[in-house]
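It is worth pausing here to work through a concrete case rather than discussing structure prediction in the abstract. The textbook approach is simple: state the sequence, then state the predicted structure, then interpret. We follow exactly that order.
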Amino acid sequence: MERLIEGYRRFQEEVFPGRRDHFHLLAEMQAPQWLFITCSDSRIVPDMILQTEPGDLFITRNAGNVVPVSTDDDGATATIEYAVEVLKVKHAILCGHSDCGALKAALNRPDPALMPKASRWLGHVEEAFSYRQPLNPAEGEHAELASLIRGNVVAQWLNLKAQPAVRRAMEHGALTVHGWYYDILSGRIEQYDEKLGRFFPLLGQSEAGEGLR
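Step two, the predicted structure:
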């Protein structure tokens, strides 16, 4: 706890005073343009990766960056609905990442007696097996897992597009939905191209689809 408290002290003394006006504007409202759906993994820090500021991203996280379709009482879909219907975000990004523990567990099931809730939650990533991407030899021993993680991005991206609020916004041209894969080791992002059925680097590939502008 000492480390966190020291970080908070530095924020109060060194960061907040210089950005007081920005936080003043955010104190009573928010108007993010981007909904960012990603994993709970501690290595994924969206504001660092994308160099965004407070108020820019509306974020929802869970194990495996899941968008459930089999239940109406989960926080992820409630957050998505609010972001689209109330905040009127222009882009929704579904972002998976390398070395994802949820997909590791999908390959090697945890003991249901030890982690009953986690075991049930893994049912939401079963469709990843249907969308596994081609193995990349450059990823070596991690290629199989990376293939499945990318498959999960596709599966959850499709689930996201099927959400009623998202579908309506897309039909009216008010929302664009993106599927991303973030590689922790290299810091690179790939984007899924639906027409080609493949992932391409987010930077330097016109085939990767529309950008975020």
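Step three, interpretation. Residues 206-213 have pLDDT under 50 and may be disordered. The beta strands are 34-39, 57-62, 91-97, 176-182, 189-193, 198-201.
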